[in-house]
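Entry 0007
Protein: Tetraspanin-7
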Amino acid sequence: YAMLLSLIFLIVLVAAIVGFVFRHEIKTNFESNLNLALRNYNVTADRHSEAVDTIQRTLHCCGVQNYSDWEKTEYFTQRGIPRSCCKSQDDCSEEDLKDPSKAKLKVFVDGCFFLVTSTMESKMSVVAGISFGVACFQLVGIILACCLSQYITNNQYEMV
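Output (structure tokens):
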């Protein structure tokens, strides 16, 4: 049991170190995937398009860097900026979404990449605290398992 806990502890430790060391690559990868999701955004509501809509609605953002990122997409030429960027769903017409100058007043202008990364970074202290707490419990479990093993081994020779 102590060996299994030690193995899990080492795996979590390595994952945390790798995540910290490669955090810039993770950001770059996220940004490129978000750009790809915008380029492939469509009306059929596949899971990538739904993810983009959810991010934009939840974080009140639009596009990767800002709302004008949608102008480079095929979806914009057909339907304009998606409705998930609208500040108010009632005050957002399709004509407004097709005109970037009108859309600027009706949609969120901030990009999602900065908001997602800043949200993740602000929650890192909570994640680190929880991880540290779990690691402490694992270490206590490892120590107690080793003590129990030692106790069982010592008492075997006394039993007759």
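Curator remark: The helical segments are 2-21, 23-39, 47-59, 74-79, 94-98, 100-106, 112-156. The chain has one domain: 1-158.
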